[in-house]
Amino acid sequence: MKRTIRDLKNIKGKRILLRCDFNVPLDHWGDILNDNRIKQALPTISYLVDQGAKLIVCSHLGRPKGYDKYLSLFPVAVYLMKYFPNKVKFCGKVVGSEVTAAASKLKDGEILVLENLRFDSRETENDPTFVQELVSLADIFVDDAFGVAHRKHASNYGVALKLPTAVGFLIEKELEVFDKAFQTPAHPFVAIFGGAKVDDKLNLINNVMKFADTIIIGGGMAYTFLQAKGINIGNSIVSLDLVDDAKRIMDEAEKRNIKILLPVDHLAICEGKKGVVRTKELFKGMTALDIGNKTIKLFTDEILNAKQIIWNGPLGKYEDSRFKKGTMKIAKAVAKSGAYSIVGGGDSVSAVEISGVADRINHLSTGGGASMKLMEGKVLPAIEVVDTL
Ligand code: ADP
Ligand code: MG
């Protein structure tokens, strides 16, 4: 069991470096377009503030190469000021003498927000000099940045090796959910896969075969599997180098008596026109961008029967309103099923949010890459180095 902030005693007056995931979308005016990630960090911040710790909060935002005024964490600091009036400071630097001075002036229960960690290239390189500068600011390190827990960066992996450590409430919750999902899975266990990044997800399917009774494959991923079955997929998205792997997965599933469901009809475009076609009617010139009604029914019947569901990857090009129906219907079926449900993946979570049923899903994982690694059964390096109890 990892040490959590609840296990930290006598932290009044202690300097705590807290790594959050404030990687939120901003517009050019610095307005926060989706505050979900900041909201998810609030319980940990509130708890540490209430305990009278001196908080030094850090995060990355986007992928800056050096300083980028459009990716400053200042809007996040302003956002936090609303929740913690008169307690939040921001000095506009990542590390260095100004930060050290600001940190030393912190009173109990106050919060210093550092500038975007990735303005300094040493962050992603896990450079020991950068680690040392962060370490010098604090007595204790708390990691609550689940979204980057699969990365070995200075502000999570690096500092965790040098300071006493604990995880925050957000990471604690993510770990609990995935532990429960895979250690005592309920059956029927239905895994739903879609999206476009097939190569990232084949390992995940391999791991899920240990638990799943049914594997549903839709979205862009389905066409690599249909191709492996020798079906003409027209111009639909395919990863040709993974066709053999897809075939192997289907053979393995058959051996283990795991049902694999693939789309039987599709919403496709052909020369600018869209229409529904059966799988065997797909031909050159057609690009399939959503599942059709028969497939929605096929998948829904299986989903409604499930006791546990994990879902990664939208079932169509949901960002385009013409091709979002399949994903929306499947989200509603998952909500309706009453199964214990986990959705992971950046696009998958936004699709569920668009569908309006997000509050009926048991767990929307905040980390795309990190949640996929947990589903693959891997340990996350930044969490592995956090102290155990
Ligand atoms: P996640 O972020 O949840 O892990 P991915 O990034 O793998 O999911 O996949 C999401 C992307 O997959 C979306 O941009 C969506 O448009 C795309 N997609 C889904 N179905 C199709 C399809 N049939 N053809 C092309 N792209 C698709
Ligand atoms: Mg994505």
CATH level-3 fold name of the largest domain: Rossmann fold
Tell me the count of domains: 2
Report low-confidence residues grouped into runs of 5 or more.
none
- Put simply, the count of helices is 14
What hetero molecules are in the model? adenosine-5'-diphosphate, magnesium ion
Number of strands: 15
State the helicity in percent bands. 25-40%
Written as H for each helix and E for each strand, in order along the chain, the element string is EHEHEHEHEHEHEHEHHEEEEHEHEHEHH
3D architecture notes:
The chain is elongated, with a radius of gyration of 23 Å. The protein is built from 14 helices and 15 strands. Helices cover 36% and strands 16% of the residues. It is of the alpha/beta class. Strand 5 (140-143), helix 5 and strand 6 form a beta-alpha-beta unit. It folds into two domains: 5-168, Rossmann fold, CATH 3.40.50; 185-375, 3-Layer(aba) Sandwich (Rossmann fold). The mean pLDDT is 95. It binds adenosine-5'-diphosphate and magnesium ion. Adenosine-5'-diphosphate binds at residues 194-197, 219-220, 237, 288-289, 312-314, 316-317, 319, 345-348, 368. Magnesium ion binds next to helix 12.
Salient structural properties:
389 residues, Rossmann fold, 2 domains, six-stranded parallel beta sheet, 36% helix, binds adenosine-5'-diphosphate, binds magnesium ion
